[in-house]
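#dry-run=false #mode=assembly
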Amino acid sequence: MNSTTLTGFVLECSGIRKKFGDLVAVDGVGFHIAPGETYGLLGPNGAGKTTTISIIAGLLERDAGEVSIAGEVMNPQSTAAKRHVGLVPQDLAIYPDLDARENLRFFGKLYGMRGAELNQRVDEVLEIIELRDRASDRSEEYSGGMKRRLNIGIGLLHRPTLLILDEPTVGVDPQSRNAILESVEQLGEQGMAVLYTTHYMEEAERLCDRIGIIDQGTIRAEGTQQELVQLVGQRDRVRLVATGNLTAGAAALGNLADVDESAVTADGIDLIVKAAHNRLPEILAAATRTGVSVAGVDVDTANLEALFLHLTGRALRE
Amino acid sequence: MKAVAIAEVSLRRFFRDRSNIFSVFLFPVILVLLLGSMQGGASNPRLGFNAETPDDLSAGLLDGLEAVDGFVVIEYDTEAATIRAVERGEIEAGLIVPAGFASALQAGGDTELRYVSRAKDGLQGIDTAIRSVVARQSTLLRTARFAEQQGAGSFENALAMAAEAQISLPPVEVVATSSGEPFALAGLGQFDIWSQTTLVLFIFLTTLQGAAALVQSRRYGVTRRMISTPTSVRTVLFGEGLSRLAIALVQGIVVFVGTWLIFGVDWGNPLLALLVLAMFAIVSSGAAMLLGAVASNDQQAGSLGTMFGLGLAALGGAMFPLAALEFLSTTVWRVAHITPHAWALEAFEELVGYNGGFAEIAGFLAILAGYAVVFFALGTWRLRAVLTR
Ligand SMILES: Nc1ncnc2c1ncn2[C@@H]1O[C@H](COP(=O)(O)OP(=O)(O)O)[C@@H](O)[C@H]1O
Ligand SMILES: [Mg+2]
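#status=ok
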């Protein structure tokens, strides 16, 4: 099932644009995924990840742009292109009053599977998502993590050329989360092309061969993790866990020498600083002067979160 | 085939809720019982009576008929009104006293009373009762004429004498012949009409409630996910509709068999009746899918379903027969036939009332098919918009 195009890509898309009323949710997104590659779309809530993915999976009409999957043009009417895609939506899409096996069998049939092939594959998938023991219990009785795993299993059934996962770990306990990440890693190793969206930097770093950083409907930067981190240069991310007048504090700190970016986060202020170790005392002093009391300091060498802050002037997780 | 898979899962989920099993069969059973109670209400046969030129004689006949237990006599002003009432099943039979009835008798000539009934409704009770009243009346008349001829004074005088003496006089013969010509309306009894209208009302109403199933699938995100598989919106809607159709058919068949076996309701040719039911059930399923695509939540689907279920039934003559509207104008007819109900009822009437065959109902079936196509097309269009815009 490793269908590819002449250009060798499983997915090619360009210039995707989608408006909801006056809001431009996606504005000229384009990228491609090679066979066996895991591509991450990393961006905060509301960046346009789900909208982009829905268009790529043929669930949503687009205002502009091209999408082709394994050489087939994708649009909501295109059943040929949909054959190649397994979609795992962000929100659960399972029947709560059916058990795991019934849910899997049902979607298997919609993917055109039958008889012995279907039965065998359902068993395999139940194994992968570790729901064999609970296969005959109604899915509404499952834990959050189990439901998520079933949600993912449905997308794997027909061994798609391209598996699309939309924030599959949101709201999942750490153990289930790890199990999900491991499954995705394995699928990638087995040669399945994966499109993975997340707002967790660590997940993108761990899973993805290449990453597109998306914000406000556009891809701001794209490349391997190393390529992306180099964009930030020799800059570190300084995370202040702080209380007080954070807005004023962030503004004041942003004016200091060698501080490139500053942004208010949920529990303090994030900064992008050149050679942070030289500047820390000054930063702490300035914070105190503006009425911000600092409870902790965390210095990270350059990573994707720093890059995001650098690119957008905002923290990835607000 | 995918549509079948979708229908199968929809039914599986429907019957997993045990209370649904109960209600699917409860509905037709209640319907059958309801119809049974209507039959009970209509159990006293109604006889229409019309005297073109009322006189003592016709009044005597009327008195005689009214005195008979077991049926109700309703007077009509004209012969046409009497016949129409028989046609519509408002009364079981009509007795028409022609103009000049009394004078014809006085002149000693033969005269006829016209007796109209529907051939199939074979109302033994009424027939016999009328015959006996008419026989008694005619005996009276003959006796009076005989007395008059024997010089007992005027006819009126003789009649009075005869009335006193009649008990001891032997019956002479029945002059009045019932002239219930073979009637066009072979056998559309009041009870048959009630059965048809009630079936049509309930099938549409309950099937429309099935819109909630589609709304629920949508809410679970499953409908959208189906579209992410190589399955078209049309197939999804068709599959969901198929499950509603299956339920409606089972319910309809229970009503057919129940009313037929227990109360002897006539549904005409059973296969053709099933065909009309099936076509109307398809229309109802289509309407349910359109509603399921339009409604934004369960409650809305439920209340709109009830509103349209009852509203269209009332409009289409499935609540009170259209014929009951005395002013059956073309406007009323046109408005009624906006609804699929009116067409389904026409088809049933053709089957049962006129012993119609396939050729006679084909037109109605085609019109119903048109409704189904329109409902499914609109539903598909709407659902596609809801899911992919
Ligand atoms: N159906 C919709 N109608 C209107 N606005 C929408 C709709 N879906 C998404 N949006 C808006 O589009 C933007 C992008 O949303 P989304 O693609 O869901 O972002 P993400 O998945 O990255 O969180 C958001 O501002 C969101 O509110
Ligand atoms: Mg999203």
